[in-house]
Amino acid sequence: MSKIVEQWLLFQHVGLEFTPLSKPFKTREQAETAREKYPERLRKTGHIAQGEVLFLHRSTASWR
Questions:
Q1: With a threshold of 0.90, does the pTM exceed it?
Q2: Which of 4, 24, 35, 48 is the most exposed place for a label (fewest CB within 10 A)?
Q3: What residue numbers bound the domain in which 10 lies?
Q4: Residue 64 lies in a domain
């Protein structure tokens, strides 16, 4: 059985390229706290953004 896991990530757009800046966080609040560590001019101009990432995890348990 598969389940979807929501995590948050800081990233930067360079042209059309997506560049992750952090490891995935479990909550939005953790991502916001990490984003506040960057200079305000980068945060306000949208150079550094945060977004939700969905991961599909498959169970490794087998049915017997």
A1: no
A2: 4
A3: 2-58
A4: no
d(CA 28, CA 32) in angstroms, rounded, equals 6
pLDDT digits (tens, 9 = 90+) for 10-24: 888 777 888 888 888
Kind and range of the H or E run holding 22? none
**6 close to 57: Cβ distance less than 8 angstroms:** no
Could you give the C-alpha distances from 46 to 25, 35, 37, in angstroms and in order?
20, 11, 14
Say if 42 falls within a structural domain. Answer: yes
Convert the pLDDT of each residue in 21-44 to its tens digit.
Answer: 888 888 889 988 988 888 888 877
* Cβ within 8 Å of residue 31, ≥6 positions away: 8, 9, 10, 22, 25, 50
Residue written as token pair 């757009």 = 13
Q: How many domains does the chain have?
A: 1
